[in-house]
Request: fold
Amino acid sequence: MAADLSNEAAPDGPPTTDAVVPFGVAGAPGEPTLRWAGHATSVAGIEQELGRIWSLPQALAARGGAGERLVAARTSVLNLVVVARSPELGEWAASTIAIGTGRHPSRTLIVVPTDPDGPAWLRADVRAYCMVPRPDAPETCAEQVYVTAGGDAGRHVEAIVAPLLVHDLPVTVWWPGDPPFGTAPAEALVGLADRVVVDGSRWTGDGLDRLRALAALARPSLPISDFALMRQARWREAVAAIFDHDAFLPYLRSLRRVAVTYATHGGPHAEAATNLVKPIYHVAWLASRLELRVTKPLARAGRATGGGRARPLPGAAPEPGRGLRALLASDRGPDVEVVVHPVVSGMPGGTTLRVELLAERRGSELRAEVTAEADTVHVRVWQDGVEALGRVFHAARRTDADLLAEAIEAGGRDLVAEGTLAAAAALAGPPSAAPDAGEEAA
Reply:
């Protein structure tokens, strides 16, 4: 059975026609099903379509078998606002969100600004996705509004978003690409938000300017979730597990060196083009947990002595770059040297390859190394040069849908994330102390 969902003319545009959507058999448990698709060319038209979704009997009931009627319940636990800077990124975000329809049903607004110098225009697809959590349960449904806006409309995203929010529900703002921190539209959206979600590992360039700007947004009333930091949970658990051993715990306050090796593709511009957010987060987490303060922010390691930079030979492998160094201090222990070291690799640029810790206590040395693969994390520890621990943790990488669900379900403040973000910004230093500062004099 198909429903005739012909739409009336949009308030400020030509007549539009809704897609014909079948309302017959509910999807398999856990599988989102499109129950409604409409179109609009104005904010008022979007509001009208959202109202129509839940006013038609066809949109409220689905027949799952002979004599069985499953009522689709409108369920929203939050407003999820996504700002995507390209249609491709918007579609990817929409598909990621659809996976979690039953886990965290929401009113989702995906806005793609485009053509900022053209005339003002707006086009929206209004959809309702429903899902049966289990065979004997009613469907739960949530709305998704996908808006493409040009000209002045695209420059004022908050004017599109604000009227469409469900009042009295929290607002999560997700920037899946490069957030335009420091701009008036971004500040207006942050003013509407109860949580901000980003993925620092996907920012263009080295990511340091956006890392500083993200830390400047943080406050107790605005939790921030960064996929780049959340992905590293398995690394953090592995490092913490080292010091669960009574023999190793005394070394924790005697760290002398933290080294993080990350992947780069090399070349003359690799240092500026490789994202450094994930390598920095490893160091920042340790610094925040051990109450270490940054006394020297990250700066490029000095060039080797002996003349100017040598010209690479034809056919030579690309150079990884000089890496970064910083210094941490504690009131209760020695200074801690920080080394962030690039290695030419086929892995995506900025991927963490290895975390190493070196501690010295009463003439004894402890060295630990953590590496990770797709489904496992490896830990090795040497005490005075003798291997004292070798352990493998089974911990698969989480998908973006899993990370988004975790961010949405996190609730209140995350003190570990707050401390790590603050320490990461301190490591990055002020803009004038960005990594190219601190080079040795020529």
In short: Residues 33-193 form one domain. The longest strand covers residues 121-131. The radius of gyration is 26 Å.
